[in-house]
Amino acid sequence: MFRKILIANRGEIACRIIETAHKLGIRCVAVYSEADANARHVNMADEAFLLGPAPSKDSYLKADKILQIAKAAGAEAIHPGYGFLSENADFAKACDAAGVVFIGPPVGAIEAMGSKSAAKDIMAKAGVPLVPGYHGDEQAPDFLAKEAEKIGYPLLLKAAYGGGGKGMRVVWQQSEFADALAGAKREAMAGFGNDKMLMERYLTKPRHVEIQVFADNHGHAVYLAERDCSIQRRHQKVIEEAPAPGFTEAQRQSMGEAAVKAAQAIDYRGAGTVEFLFDEDGSFYFMEMNTRLQVEHPVTEMITGQDLVKWQLLVASGQPLPLAQHEVSLHGHAIEVRVYAEDPDNDFLPATGKLTYLRQPEASRYVRVDSGVVENDEISPYYDPMIAKLIVWDEDRDRAISRMLRALDDYRIAGVTTNLSFLTSLVEHPAFVAAELDTNFIEHHQESLFAPATKENNQALVLAALYILETQKQPQSCSDAFSPWQFSHGWRLNEQPMQLLNLQHQEHSHQLQLQQLQDAVLVQLDGQQLRCQARLQGDELIATLGEHKTRVRISQYQDTISVFIRHHRYDFSYQTELLTETELSDDSGSLTAPMNGTIVAVLVEAGQQVKAGQTLVVMEAMKMEYSIKAPADATVKAVFYQAGELVQDGAELVELETEDA
């Protein structure tokens, strides 16, 4: 076994590899870009080396520099993870030439599967079923149009050297072909430097089912069951599960044996994934082979009880596979979702920003989180915006779905827009629960998955208000622990303290009136009054709203408060001020200071006309700012203080003359 390896990757997959390597006593070398200097994978590794600036081309794709670091650090092998250099045949060759083991398949296997069209030819010769289509070298548009007619519509145009949905078009009829071909070629050239296309019959309701295969250097090859990856957006996977719902043992064996044939046809070594389209009639067709570990490998690990990264390290170090085919057993059901920083309501636009609050579900035998980030990390624009993979396991699919829904409720993130709520909508959708799956699932259920935004959540508003009151009770600097000046919740001699609170949610503003009683708070919102109690325990608010008791997590970053209710997050910004008795009545001609404090700003002058609710003076007391507002339309007769001056409780600040007076 290796003593030291280098991980040529970042994020959750780098962390995942380090965890297994450390269990095996292997020291790990990390590499990082300037953007990842404090990343989790860097801190987990035994040592780490800077590659260069943030862009991938200047860091994680610098094959020569990565090899230099590996040699200098004494690493015997390089694990490429997935993405970046994981399927780069030139990098694998360079590793071989430098005497560093590439923890992946042989160069010939990578090259054979690097071209989708060449891969199809190899699979056809090996007897692996193929979707009817064209995979040849002739690329003249007129010729391709004729081949398209032979295949029949609808058909799928795919970049021969592509991936991730780029250079891919569905063509429904002949009149669309020319424009679709031109667009797909442009996208393929921009993304992969090669615009060669292949064409296939487009199956209207296929499932995406893939087989995990493994082969060693001793002539052994096995398949480790299947994964259903049908739930996709923009041809990229969102939910994966194993085993595939509704699959029979005969179907598993038939597809598994075809996948092993595919691996043996290219003299494969290590971990690979053979992807198939599974049609409604039970037939299946080879789609492509990924010559690396897949993002969704954890669901296979959960149902087989095997560590696939450990298998990779064993095979790469020359050892045989841990299990023969007849020893592979399956138990239970596993589901994985990919937690992304993205906006599902805005065409899944990637989001960037700081993870100001991050609480993951508690790990157990049922719940696993593979993540490369910690709280306060930045989701940058340079890399894939995946925050983590959330994986659950249970005895059957229904229980696994319940586990996933609870885990999604327990996943709380603030600071960036995420797809957590959308993932919940997917997992609890009746069609998903019924395993009515196909690769167009999201498009088919667009209306129910992207339902119009619900009205404002009054419960979240009240909880945010109670949280603010509780945080204001934090003790201030004062020698007398029993002094009312120890608290900033609006205590007033011989009065019930009253506060106005303005909460802003998206483009909507809400005003709440809060009256502090001896053992409760009266909250007025939209003409309704609710008696509440609350206490703050860390980031958990334990509240009673009328007759309803609830516990919610709440986070605050600067002036933004995030309330988490199930899988929803409600973000509020706020302003607060104390109401004096003069503000609560319209017949006073003066406004007085509600407490001892400092004048921050005077916004009016004598003779000025003011409107009801207009802020006249801003003062600061106990680290909080309070706005003194006009109780009615009036004329300012006199202003008695200037900015920077200290005032006593009850001091007259402004004299007003109302129209009634």
Automatic annotation (TrEMBL):
<dbReference type="Pfam" id="PF02786">
    <property type="entry name" value="CPSase_L_D2"/>
</dbReference>
<dbReference type="InterPro" id="IPR005482">
    <property type="entry name" value="Biotin_COase_C"/>
</dbReference>
<dbReference type="Pfam" id="PF00289">
    <property type="entry name" value="Biotin_carb_N"/>
</dbReference>
<dbReference type="InterPro" id="IPR013815">
    <property type="entry name" value="ATP_grasp_subdomain_1"/>
</dbReference>
<dbReference type="InterPro" id="IPR005481">
    <property type="entry name" value="BC-like_N"/>
</dbReference>
<dbReference type="InterPro" id="IPR011764">
    <property type="entry name" value="Biotin_carboxylation_dom"/>
</dbReference>
<dbReference type="InterPro" id="IPR050856">
    <property type="entry name" value="Biotin_carboxylase_complex"/>
</dbReference>
<dbReference type="InterPro" id="IPR016185">
    <property type="entry name" value="PreATP-grasp_dom_sf"/>
</dbReference>
<dbReference type="InterPro" id="IPR011054">
    <property type="entry name" value="Rudment_hybrid_motif"/>
</dbReference>
<keyword id="KW-0067">ATP-binding</keyword>
<keyword id="KW-0436">Ligase</keyword>
<dbReference type="Pfam" id="PF00364">
    <property type="entry name" value="Biotin_lipoyl"/>
</dbReference>
<keyword id="KW-0547">Nucleotide-binding</keyword>
<dbReference type="Pfam" id="PF02785">
    <property type="entry name" value="Biotin_carb_C"/>
</dbReference>
<dbReference type="InterPro" id="IPR048429">
    <property type="entry name" value="MCC_alpha_BT"/>
</dbReference>
<feature type="domain" description="Biotin carboxylation">
    <location>
        <begin position="1"/>
        <end position="447"/>
    </location>
</feature>
<dbReference type="InterPro" id="IPR000089">
    <property type="entry name" value="Biotin_lipoyl"/>
</dbReference>
<feature type="domain" description="Lipoyl-binding">
    <location>
        <begin position="582"/>
        <end position="657"/>
    </location>
</feature>
<dbReference type="InterPro" id="IPR001882">
    <property type="entry name" value="Biotin_BS"/>
</dbReference>
<protein>
    <submittedName>
        <fullName>Acetyl/propionyl/methylcrotonyl-CoA carboxylase subunit alpha</fullName>
    </submittedName>
</protein>
<dbReference type="InterPro" id="IPR005479">
    <property type="entry name" value="CPAse_ATP-bd"/>
</dbReference>
<dbReference type="InterPro" id="IPR011053">
    <property type="entry name" value="Single_hybrid_motif"/>
</dbReference>
<dbReference type="Pfam" id="PF21139">
    <property type="entry name" value="BT_MCC_alpha"/>
</dbReference>
<dbReference type="InterPro" id="IPR011761">
    <property type="entry name" value="ATP-grasp"/>
</dbReference>
<feature type="domain" description="ATP-grasp">
    <location>
        <begin position="120"/>
        <end position="317"/>
    </location>
</feature>
<keyword id="KW-0092">Biotin</keyword>
